What we know:
Domain HTH araC/xylS-type: 439-537
Number of domains: 4
Domain Response regulatory: 2-119
Largest sheet: 5 strands, parallel
Distance between the termini: 67 Å
Shape: elongated
GO molecular function: DNA binding
Pfam families: HTH_18, Response_reg
Strand order of the largest sheet: 2-1-3-4-5
InterPro entries: CheY-like_superfamily, Homeodomain-like_sf, HTH_AraC, HTH_AraC-typ_CS, Sig_transdc_resp-reg_receiver, Tscrpt_reg_AraC-type_HTH
Amino acid sequence: MNILIVDDEQHVREAIKLLIDWKQLGIKQIFEADNGDSAIELLGRIAPEIVITDMRMPNRDGVELLAWMKENGRKSKSIVISGYDDFHLVRSSMKYGGQDYLLKPIDPEQLMEALQKVKLSWEQEDHARKLDQQRNMEINQIKPVYRDKLFSTLISETAVSGNASVPADLREEFKLERVTASQVIILSTEMLEPQISRKFSGNRDLLTFCLINVANEILRHNNVGFAFRYWNSEHEIILLLWDRLAQWETILARITDGIEQTIHGRFHYGVGQAMPFPGGLSASYQAGRMALKQRNLLTGSSYIHSQESGRKAGVHSLSIASYEERFRLAVWSGKEKDLEAAVDSFLEAARMLPSVSLEQVELWRFEYEAMLSRWNQELAVKQVRDEPLEPPSGLPLSVLLDEEGKLSLELCRRELINGLTAYAALTGAGGNKEHSVMRDIAKYMEQHYNREVTLQDISERFYLSREYISRRFKQEMGENVFDYLGRIRVEKAKLLLQNPNLKIAQIAEMVGYDDDKYFSKVFKKFEGQSPNQYRKM
């Protein structure tokens, strides 16, 4: 704690300093001022817990100092020491927050008692302030989640009953008493552009937080609406408008511009109709959701979708289930040409479709997973396996998009061929094909050695578990995955080291290492010498 002594007589200030055992009180520093003006100047730089002041001083006196402290919200505790037993002065000191009024000459015991009292008062109030701050921090952390939950519940309740009452908390905070109509716009984070997916890989919560913040910067201005995470879907952010509904296109354009400037990417929006508030919330939400599901993934001309804006894509008759027998025969044959021919026959029909919607792709994914599940059940009946079967996962939507965010049938082809090939290897269909898949993994690393390659990346690309890849790769290739990758990188680095114009750090980056020290460590492991030593040799 710190203390400020204010008195125009130096000998009084010195006496106060000598009369008290400040160390026992826990006082670290003592500041001095000879009048109220000097004290105010000091208070602008320091924040003492205790102020001891005289009442009669030149320029600004003690009463004026205490009044200034109260008006400016100073939390310091004050003790008045005065040579005047004057009721007016006593009343003024109490009015402006003085804790005690002591008369000169100073009694050491009275002063010590007064100091202990104000010290205890300060500590109690400081503890209470900290508790309030902690509560406020906790409330501020919980409040956004609480609001998201209330708004999400509103949409869900209107879906069940067709009506819902607006919670008093929301009505008061957002001034919703006079709102009669609203409109739901869904911002979808399900199928991200590849650059956004890479940037926020493993941190989707951060992406959601950024998007909501940008949207609310615009929506909360003039209280036209609110953006929140929809609790019933991990890939949806709701932009709820309740004012200026006729200007929704202008408002949404400002939001999309703000997001593009902040995150450098674009997202798809499903626009529902303006409906009565709050009873029409669910209907507006469902319209926006359907518009997203029915958008044409083969074109990237628009990111804003509504059911009124054009043709309904719907779900076409093309089905993976119709090609199941051909896929099955190709997998069981174990021949690469048969697999490619089966996949190409399906995609040839897909290319004839006028459009492919998200709804269509979700159906394909469901059919693909169901097909593999049926095959697993058949295998389980026909043979007893000595290790549990870990089937490849379904078609991940994110890897089916090109750099413009459009559905790529070529990427679909690659993923289907890789997935079915991996399934054949994993199950032993058509003979033992693990060695072929491990060679494909090795080839993939040879082609992508200069990028960050993780076991998870390989697992997702080849639809095999990380444990299975680690075990099988070492069996087939004679060393583990990362030693194999390290050897490829070192061989590439040896060629680059022959160029004297390239720095070691540059070479490290060119062969896939961000840290040149770690690159040197790996290089020495394989070559028995550092990159510099190799270059000199």
